[in-house]
Each structure stands twice: as C-alpha cells, then as structure tokens.
Amino acid sequence: DTNVLLACLFTRGICELLLDVCFVPDATVEVCCSEYILQEFAAAATRFRVPPERVAEVVEYLRRQILIVEPVPVPADACRDPQDVPVLGKALAAQAQFLVTGDQDLLVLGQFDRTTITSPRAFYDFLLAAS
Q1: How far is CA 55 from each of CA 10, 21, 59, 82, rounded to the nearest angstrom?
Q2: Is residue 116 exposed (0-12), middle (13-18) or buried (19+ Cβ within 10 Å)?
C-alpha cells in the first residue's frame, strides 16, 4: 500500500529491507501496484516535503520495477474504510498472493479472496523462511 511504499523509499527499517529483497535481479517476488497507489504515493511524498522532482524520479523508478495493474471493481463494503477498496481491487486484479500493508482496516481482514493480507514484518519473515 501507499504507506509501505513511502516507508520503503524514504525511511530506514523493515520496509526498506523488503524493497531490497523484492527489487533484486531474478527476485522471486513480483511487486504489483496501480496508478491509484502511485498517485496517492506522489501526493503523500510531497506532503512529507520530498521535493517534487525527487517524487517524480521515484515514481518513474517504481514504474520500471513493478507491474502496474488496473484495479477491478470490489464491493464498497469489502472493508471498513472505503478508501481502501481500490487497494483490494488492485490485489484482486493482480491475483496477488500477498497484500503487504500497515493499514489496520486492511490487516483486520486477514484474507481477501485468495490474497493474504499481511504486515511488512510478517511478509519479510515469510520471505526469509522461504529462502
């Protein structure tokens, strides 16, 4: 989700480590995103005083590294926060095995269709155990 991307690229910690694992050549993980998330990311990064030219560079970098999918329609009541519905639609469109988020409105679901909704730490631990 947007906050995970922000943490991956502008902070130090578990999300940054996830980025290192997912964006290496021949990674077994394919990161999927939507234009909705990229636009939300760009707006949030600007609010955190990241210079607009740096935001544009990062968004272009992400576009080269990830699969962009168009969210599919999801019922408005699929989760308790209507702003998270497009995130679920993206996971569904990508046929994602995991949705990595820190958003409690999504984490409380645990599962959506065939997608496991997990925290960055739990996903990182999963990747370490699988390697």
Answers
A1: 10, 22, 6, 26
A2: middle
CA distance 91 to 99: 7
Place of tokens 């560079």: 57
Res. 38 pLDDT band, cuts 50 70 90? very high
pTM (predicted TM-score): 0.88
Tens digit of each residue's pLDDT (9 = 90 or more) over 75-115 = 999 999 999 999 999 999 999 999 999 999 999 999 999 99
The SS3 call for residue 67 is: strand
Q: How far apart are CA 33 and CA 37, in angstroms?
A: 6
Taking residue 113's Cβ as centre, other Cβ atoms within 10 Å add up to 11
Angle between helices 85-94 and 35-47 (to 10 degrees): 130
